[in-house]
Design a protein that fits this description.
This protein has helices at about 5-10, 15-35, 40-55, 70-85, 100-115, 125-145, 155-170, 175-185, 195-200, 205-220, 230-235, 265-280, 295-300, 310-315, 315-325, 330-335, 340-350, 355-360, 400-410, 415-425, 435-440; strands at about 60, 70, 90, 255, 285-295, 350-355, 370-375, 380, 385. It has about 450 residues and is α+β, with helices and mostly antiparallel strands.
Length: about 450
């Protein structure tokens, strides 16, 4: 299918039921992450940055969970950065990255600006644009992985999804759309992802940069700026990434994270969770040592004694220790004072992480770990080889998604507001406008 035709004609109501559910679930999941990240230092810093450097002009959008108005480029920067600052957002195997933490904040910023100019957007229209953004962003990611020699951060491809979703919201003509795609790819942040694995920082997976690049490309194309063709869309060598557009849905292949830490730490957390449920005697006081066997990339996480929230969330040892010490891993365990908590660090120091050749051989098609817990009384418990909870083969239930949303958002929002957001997302496809949801997630 022609890409422009797909962008302008997709109807959310005509999607398969399972895909509609996945889009709505993805939206709620990202909003939960954003709510859980409201008060962490990265989110506070990036909101102040946006307020200072991207003041409102002809366009104005509200900062998420803040209410102050800035230019949509600043709102996109801040939203993407904030979603990226709490590592609980969904992801995708074949792109080795994420789309939602880019496309959701960017489209929220654009739609809010468009709405404030007097253009109402129905829930159906917004969800159609969001589906377009997810689907094209993920396919651009697969194309980049198939054509680039280096593993790039998600912002390198997700900005193209922003362009596609924005083109739907703004009803861009095809010439402007193609130029915007080219601009977004050309100026896209080709960030070397493994550098952030080895040296964690606020930069994360470049979602803020991708959100900015996508919206900036749209505004530039609308101003008459031209761009070269986007290779990850137009090149013949990656045609296989786009051939079944509109027939098969990449978003259906997304995985979801129960915990706000790196995807590569999730199998170990899943394994430890099962051991804790099977053996209630396992706790912070009873554990003598922990051995984690995992694939090479996960082994590189390490992270026994993090110095900040970024290192805690891009680590493996620390979140496993937090789970054993406190029985959960949420925003309160991987940000703030918990990073220096004696009960967690005491267990973290007992963890040994080893590469297992059999598990490395199965990566990236499978992301697996195996954990052995030895107690002080000599008993030893070993998990089977474990796949992460939330993968397409080990899906989270609707109740588990709502529990996750409450666990993340409930750190900063009252229960009533959390319930109102869930209801607004569930009813969005039939809503004549997006005002109810937007006001719930953009006010302080």
């Amino acid at each position: 299918m022609n890409l422009y035709h797909f962008v302008q004609t997709l109807s959310f109501s005509n999607l398969p039921e399972a895909t509609r559910h996945r889009v709505s679930t993805s939206l709620l999941d990202i909003i939960g992450v954003l709510a859980g990240a409201i008060n962490n230092q990265t989110s506070q810093n990036i909101r102040e940055y946006a307020q200072q450097h991207y003041p409102s002009a002809n366009h104005s959008a509200r900062l998420l969970f803040d209410g102050r108005s800035v230019h949509p480029l600043g709102a996109a920067w801040a939203g993407g950065f904030s979603a990226d600052s709490l590592d609980a957002h969904e992801g995708h195997f074949t792109s080795k990255g994420h789309a939602g933490a880019t496309v959701v904040p960017a489209l929220l910023a654009l739609a809010d600006a468009y709405r404030q100019q007097g253009h109402e957007i129905s829930g159906e229209t917004f969800l159609s644009a969001l589906t377009v953004a997810y689907e094209t962003g993920l396919r651009a990611g697969v194309a980049l992985m198939d054509s680039a020699s280096e593993y790039h951060a998600s912002g390198a491809f997700s900005g193209l999804g922003v362009v596609c979703g924005a083109a739907r919201l703004l009803n861009m003509n095809e010439e402007q759309f193609l130029h915007a795609l080219g601009i977004a790819e050309y100026f896209g942040p080709r960030c070397p992802m493994m550098r952030l694995i080895d040296f964690p920082s606020n930069l994360r997976d470049a979602h803020g940069a991708g959100a900015y690049a996508g919206l900036n490309a749209v505004f530039m194309a609308q101003s008459g700026i031209t761009g070269a063709p986007a290779e990850t869309v137009a090149d013949d060598t990656i045609a296989h990434c786009w051939d079944d557009l509109g027939e098969r849905w990449e978003i259906d292949a997304q995985y979801f994270k129960p915990w706000p830490v790196c995807r590569w730490a999730q199998p170990s957390l899943t394994a430890v969770t099962a051991l804790l449920h099977a053996h209630p005697e396992i706790n912070g006081d009873s554990v003598d040592k922990i051995e984690i066997e995992t694939f090479h990339e996960s082994m590189r996480l390490q992270g026994h004694f993090p110095r900040n929230a970024d290192e805690a969330q891009y680590g493996l040892a620390f979140p496993v220790a937090a789970l054993i010490a406190r029985g959960q891993v949420g925003p309160s365990e991987v940000t703030g004072d918990a990073i220096f908590a004696d009960d967690i660090l005491a267990i973290s120091g007992k963890i040994e992480i080893k590469e297992a050749a059999d598990l490395s051989a199965r990566f990236p098609q499978e992301i697996l770990s195996r954990v052995t817990l030895t107690l002080k009384d000599g008993r030893c418990f070993t998990s089977p080889i474990t796949q992460a909870k939330g993968d397409p083969g080990t899906p989270m239930s609707d109740s588990e998604f709502k529990e996750k949303f409450a666990r993340l958002a409930g750190v900063n929002l009252e229960l009533a507001r959390c319930q109102q957001i869930v209801t607004a997302v569930e009813q969005l496809d039939n809503a004549p406008h997006c005002n109810t949801l937007f006001n719930l997630i953009m006010q302080p």
